[in-house]
Design a protein that fits this description.
0% helix; mainly beta; single chain; 7-stranded mixed β-sheet; 51% strand; 4-stranded antiparallel β-sheet
Length: 123
């Protein structure tokens, strides 16, 4: 079993940066594929970024602005979000899968989810 806890969300103005954290416990973090997803009000949960097997993947609408990273020694994953836009407003969730070959963008491929942290970007 893996427990995931997100933090770092908040209400900000457009153009600023935020860094989200996802603390993992319960199993060997390094062997897990990890991802970030987000869900805006009234919309489906969508892929944002993931790290698996040394490779990173990004949704087109965040590429160049968001950076995913992980500190295996701290069992923590991060999402650095720069140049935030109002359309980035959502609840952000971290996710984990014990399969390093997990399709990085497929929500259903992840076994464990955090409770989410809210990000609100105003113009």
């Amino acid at each position: 079993q893996v427990q995931l806890v997100e933090s770092g969300g908040g209400a900000v103005q457009a153009g600023v940066s935020l860094r989200l954290s996802c603390a993992a416990s319960g199993r060997t973090f390094i062997t897990y594929a990890m991802g970030w997803f987000r869900q805006a009000p009234g919309k489906e949960r969508e892929f944002v970024a993931s790290w698996s097997g040394g490779f990173t993947y990004y949704a087109d609408n965040v590429k160049g602005r968001f950076t995913i990273s992980r500190d295996n020694a701290k069992n923590t994953m991060y999402l650095q979000m720069n140049s935030l836009k109002p359309e980035d407003t959502a609840v952000y969730y971290c996710a984990a899968s014990p399969n390093l070959n997990t399709p990085p963008r497929v929500r259903g491929a992840y076994n464990y989810w955090g409770q989410g942290t809210g990000v609100t970007v105003s113009s």
